[in-house]
Amino acid sequence: MSTSAFLEVKGLKKYFPIKSGVLSKTTNYVKAVDDVSFAVREGETLGIVGESGCGKSTTGRSIIRLLEPSDGEVIFQGENLRSLKGDALRRIRRDMQIVFQDPFASLNPRMTVGAILEEPLKVHKLGNAAERRAKVLEMLEIVGLTEYHYNRYPHEFSGGQRQRIGIARALITNPKFIIADEPVSALDVSIQSQILNLLKDLQEQFKLTYMFISHDLSVVRHISDRVGVMYLGRMVELAPKAGLYAEPKHPYTQALLSAVPHPNPFEKRERIILSGDVPSPSNPPSGCAFHTRCHACMDICKTARPELMDTGDGHFVACHLY
Amino acid sequence: MSYLLEIKGLRTQFSSDGRVIPAVDGVDFAIREGETLGIVGESGCGKSVTSLSVMRLLPRTGAKIAAGEILYKGRALLDLSEAEMRKMRGNEIAMIFQEPMTSLNPVYTIGQQLSESVMLHRGYNKQQARAHSIEMLKKVNIPRPEQIIDEYPHQLSGGMRQRVMIAMAMSCDPELLIADEPTTALDVTIQAQILDLMRDLRDTQGTSILMITHDLGVVAEMCDRVVVMYAGQVVEQATVEQLFAKPSHPYTQGLMNSIPKSDGDQDRLQSIPGNVPLPGSIEQGCRFAGRCVYAEAKCLNQSPPLYTWEDGQQSRCWLHENGRIDLSELAPHDAKEVQGA
Is the ipTM of this complex over 0.85? Predict the structure, then answer.
């Protein structure tokens, strides 16, 4: 694994305006992603975890500009994505693809599987009709489907099979980087493990780099090399998987990890139960966004926002305790 | 041994387009007083239909309880009139649904919805009901209950709504609480709060809980005994310790191996090949045979009986035909990797 920055995200922000009144004046912003910086290394899987509304999906979508970021830079293999337009942007999107969460909503019900998989090739003007068909059939095979499925419609497939189609669609342009946004959360456990295994195999086969977004801490642990934890639009901790799960540093990460029910009735654990709910991202707390629920809250936490700092061994944490 | 609820040979069918689909196909289990029983299974295995059958809340058209008995404290629930059943629901048997967003009525305040059951079952007047509702909101740790009681569901977060649902279910002090995926729609930190609350209520009120879930982590933390369902049948029944130490059905074993372990790192997960079958699609043999790594010719032709052992564990698998077998010592028959089937 090389350590060169394959993808670098610097100060990424995505604010959604809240409009009100007859003139639809912007009265406030939902700060879905608020100044997030991190790097993804070539060949690794970076997991992003967090609870609903923490901005993990918005981060993923802002990176490939499915959502236009409000501020910040995204540098992919030396090119600043935010300055690209039209053809140049389309060309670079060939190298970065996304797999969506809901395999029921992300496939067009009126297109056959063949047409769905061929579309990216057409958009990017790759190959002639015969070559495209051959490529689609090859891809179906790779994700564990067959030629038989080519002329079928999405409704004829189960959830796991649809997710395989979603993955095939993302891979068909030979991308280098895949953003997987909750790719297994809509699936039953027995199917979930099939898809996770498939993603791992494909990564090896095609030397892919993944950004894997999920709310499920054990799934992220299984698939990732490094893991970032988000809370209220901010990255609060980012560390190699082993360090993060063995020794979580941020009080939020500690609470999050202890909240996961373990499938082991013989083990009795101490649990940190957070009080209250996640505050609204339109009106985040001052200072550290977590201070309202933190058991180790100090005076400084209420006023100054902690920066993401390296505490050694590439273990970054944004907390005044360190 | 006193059972609070006994289900015997329950068969619940749905009919559509002239076809009969057996969603629940001969299910037996019982809940003791004060016990938490988990029903585990993947989507379509019949776990929710089982609970709706107990409450007699199945859709009026198309669904039918074709056979079986449901005994609550020895009373046959299926023989009760609708009026008698209404006296049971919310009073003796209460239910929490999965979706706190859709199971509260958006046009009534929290207080109006909470008061309904005590006014109906206990004859409380408005003031008494309101005082009782505030008391219940306090019990489920809702902050500012005097104000929240006049708010509408949309003003509350998901976790708060689920607390209101629990308050509502517990307001008549039921003996049996049926919780259908009560935390599935919630974030983990909120899930931990809700499970903690349910444990608390169980321990202080002595309520029996029927916990329906697909999450083995939740089972390990909450349940005393577990029923594993697959394609409308009970395939395994065991205490939670037995289940996690020595699963006796290949499906249970497969489910356990499918979840990423929290200790140590594996490169690949073991998965169960294939898909969950549609209810009624398998007519012959063991319903799990098509996905089972131990399957033999017999499994495809003959349905296995539910073997029961002295310690209470049950398994519906031919492997135990000549005496109980420890699955962890078996080698998979053919560890073929079936993809996408």
Answer: no
